């Protein structure tokens, strides 16, 4: 079951949850503000125990109120704290918080264009309600925070970040860490939100879990222990035919590496048999590199037919190309109505000739491919990744993986919350990673998983394997380095 620690909410949902919390507990808004400040101060003490000079930047709303109360706690603990206020608080609870800070002897000053030196800055300017680009003094203050040498702690959400989408609304605070109050916001876990938030921590403010029950979250973080259960243990009395036959189709002239990566990934992730349909020039090299693959030269549609008849699942697209050869194989493969994973040029061809799928199908676009599938542009996709992945799933009636920082998975029927991958790293931004993912998902489909489960487990295993493989650094990781970590990660799911 999903827990508050895995559920992701929009700003509107968080406001309703806040109201529910007050009604359920009998607390007042100021009480929640005090709890938020205490949680933030606990993070501050743990992360920056030696920070003596702290500057808290406060806005005019409840986020600013959290900042004033945090400032008071830090001052009471013996820290040298100053508050910079954009303007006088407008929210009643924030006004009470500011008065509490001033009664305790805390100074408040306006922003003069420069920030005083500090060991730590706190962003308490804007919370979840911001829906516009910052301008004027607020924009200048954000610029100053980003230019500062000291770390920045953001309260609830970095100012300038959209809570719902994770897109920057223009200028945006680039926080070192963010403490999210009560629940996670969708924008904290995908796209630009990951960099803007830095290290994220959740503070539920000791509220009962029941306050989340009446609000249906539209997205949730993947949870590895749960995903481990979707791939059953293997009995001892089995043979390779029990675990499916994947046919990987692709590798036009000069692109044999892509289809090799997809094919080997399918083997490494447990497919019983893997065949490769590719150009004749690649056959010898593929067999020499990985003799366990069954590699066939395929010149056209008729030669593909015999392979299609024996296959359970198709991995279509790695290195397929956009020439007549690839187009012909793509058309014939889809006409078979086999369970399939589509990536790379298979997606580009689909964008030119859209169709809704009757058979189980998983699409794995990166943002540029997603833009083509929606007749859009990459910037629009990244501006609202959640909406984009759901729109593709609905248009093509397929399970969709929108790759990128915080990869998203949407169900073909839209019945499940969007799944968000919390793993992965920048070292995985290298050629061939998508081919490995295609093979991994195809292998899981071949072993009997649904499109939804295969996509989620495939994305999670791929990302976690990438984290293991990138232990040596953020640069220089090769897609081929993923195979052993993939086996290692899936060992817990497949029990060998």
Automatic annotation (TrEMBL):
Keyword Isomerase: yes
Cofactor annotation: Mg(2+); K(+)
Positions annotated to bind AMP: 403-407, 434
Domain YjeF C-terminal: 223-493
Record has Zinc as a keyword: no
Reactions listed under catalytic activity: (6S)-NADPHX + ADP = AMP + phosphate + NADPH + H(+); (6R)-NADHX = (6S)-NADHX; (6R)-NADPHX = (6S)-NADPHX; (6S)-NADHX + ADP = AMP + phosphate + NADH + H(+)
Keyword entries, A-Z: ATP-binding, Isomerase, Lyase, Metal-binding, Multifunctional enzyme, NAD, NADP, Nucleotide-binding, Potassium
Enzyme Commission code: 4.2.1.136, 5.1.99.6
UniProt subunit comment: Homotetramer.
Family of the protein in this entry: In the C-terminal section; belongs to the NnrD/CARKD family.
Name of the protein this chain belongs to: Bifunctional NAD(P)H-hydrate repair enzyme
Protein source organism: Tahibacter harae
């Amino acid at each position: 079951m999903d827990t508050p620690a895995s559920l992701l909410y929009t700003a509107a949902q968080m406001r309703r949850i806040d109201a529910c919390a007050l009604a359920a507990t009998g607390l007042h808004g100021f009480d929640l503000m005090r709890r938020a400040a205490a949680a933030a101060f606990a993070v501050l003490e743990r992360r920056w125990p030696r920070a003596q000079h702290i500057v808290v930047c406060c806005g005019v709303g409840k986020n600013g109120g959290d900042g004033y109360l945090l400032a008071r706690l830090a001052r009471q603990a013996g820290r040298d704290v100053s508050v910079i206020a954009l303007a006088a608080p407008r929210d009643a609870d924030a006004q009470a918080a500011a008065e509490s800070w001033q009664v305790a002897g805390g100074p408040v000053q306006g922003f003069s264009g420069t920030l005083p030196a500090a060991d730590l800055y706190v962003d308490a300017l804007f919370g979840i309600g911001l829906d516009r680009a910052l301008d004027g003094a607020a924009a200048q203050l954000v610029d100053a925070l980003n230019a500062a040498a000291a770390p920045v702690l953001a309260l609830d959400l970095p100012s300038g970040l959209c809570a719902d989408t994770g897109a920057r609304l223009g200028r945006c605070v680039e926080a070192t860490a963010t403490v999210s109050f009560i629940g996670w916001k969708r924008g904290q876990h995908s796209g630009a939100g990951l960099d803007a938030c830095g290290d994220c921590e959740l503070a539920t403010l000791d509220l009962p879990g029941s306050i989340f029950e009446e609000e249906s979250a539209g997205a949730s973080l993947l949870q590895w222990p749960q995903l481990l259960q979707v791939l059953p243990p293997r009995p001892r009395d089995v043979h390779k035919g029990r675990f499916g036959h994947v046919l990987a189709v692709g590798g036009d002239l000069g692109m044999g590496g892509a289809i090799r990566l997809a094919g080997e990934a399918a083997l490494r992730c447990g497919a019983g048999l893997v065949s490769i349909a590719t150009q004749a020039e690649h056959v010898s090299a593929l067999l020499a590199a990985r003799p366990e693959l069954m590699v066939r030269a395929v010149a056209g549609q008729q030669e593909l037919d015999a392979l299609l008849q024996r296959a359970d699942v198709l991995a279509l697209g790695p290195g397929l190309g956009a020439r007549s050869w690839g187009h012909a194989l793509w058309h014939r493969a889809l006409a078979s109505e086999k369970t399939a994973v589509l990536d790379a040029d298979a997606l580009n061809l689909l964008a030119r000739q859209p169709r809704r799928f009757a058979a189980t199908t998983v699409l794995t676009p990166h943002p540029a491919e997603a833009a083509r599938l929606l007749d859009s542009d990459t910037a629009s996709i990244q501006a609202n990744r959640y909406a984009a992945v759901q729109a593709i799933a609905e248009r093509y009636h397929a399970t969709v993986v929108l790759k990128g920082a915080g990869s998203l998975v949407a169900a073909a029927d839209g019945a499940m919350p969007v799944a968000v991958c919390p793993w992965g790293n920048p070292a995985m931004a290298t050629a061939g990673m998508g081919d490995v993912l295609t093979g991994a998902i195809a292998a899981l489909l071949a072993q009997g998983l649904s499109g939804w489960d295969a996509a989620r487990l495939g994305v999670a295993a791929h990302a976690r394997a990438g984290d293991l493989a990138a232990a040596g650094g953020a640069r220089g990781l090769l897609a081929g380095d993923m195979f052993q970590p993939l086996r290692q990660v899936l060992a817990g799911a497949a029990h060998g």
